[in-house]
Design a protein that fits this description.
204 residues; mainly beta; 2 helices; 11 strands; 14% helix; 52% strand
Length: 204
């Protein structure tokens, strides 16, 4: 037994071991954030087997396009959800959290940004979500439009004949969502804070 292990009280946690176990998850998400910022991450990739939480005090965007989509894990399993394409957007107090099971217990990875009057700026944000709640206002909304003809957000179109929705502008307060993936062509995280904790608090 090492000196560090002997110094732990009964029932304590080996934080060095916890950090070692969580390191791959931290590295993967950090790499994703860098790829988002450089605009090199495609919106079509195999998702993990569990959804993560996304919240924001306020989201506003010049455009919105949405249609039903299926996110697939690496083993081919599908998860139905809504693919939301958001144009030039700003988000205040954004939070993303994921609960990851490890041999030491449930580890919560948490990323937050956009507080203290420094909102996050996003271009062409694509969110594959299973739900989204909040108080919303839409401008020039079109519900039931052919998903193959959506044109409010560049590159966001569904299959011809499928159900689609779009709006010229959107403002949502108290955003809460469970999502399978999130990508962005230009993702500027101001005041980024990243943390990993054993059984720590999630976004909501």
């Amino acid at each position: 037994m090492s000196r560090a292990d002997r110094s732990l009280p009964e029932g304590g946690t080996a934080w060095r071991k916890a950090a070692f176990v969580a390191l791959p998850a931290v590295a993967a998400v950090a790499a994703m954030a860098i790829a988002m910022g450089e605009g090199v991450l495609a919106s079509s990739f195999a998702v993990s087997g569990s959804a993560f939480q996304v919240s924001s005090h306020h989201l506003s965007s010049k455009g919105l396009a949405a249609f039903v989509d299926v996110a697939r894990t690496g083993d081919g399993r599908g998860h139905a959800g809504a693919l939301l394409g958001i144009g030039d957007a700003t988000l205040k107090d954004i939070c993303q959290s994921a609960r990851i099971d490890t041999p030491l217990g449930a580890v919560v990875f948490k990323l937050s940004a956009g507080g203290s009057g420094n909102p996050v700026e996003v271009r062409n944000l694509v969110l594959d979500a299973e739900d989204l709640t909040g108080d919303a206002e839409f401008g020039t909304v079109e519900i039931g439009r052919d998903a193959g003809t959506l044109d409010r957000v560049p590159g966001i179109r569904g299959e011809p004949g499928a159900f689609g929705l779009q709006a010229g502008s959107v403002s949502v307060t108290g955003v809460r969502s469970h999502a399978w993936s999130a990508t962005g062509g230009d993702f500027r995280l101001k005041g980024l804070r990243l943390g990993v904790s054993l059984d720590g608090p999630a976004c909501f």
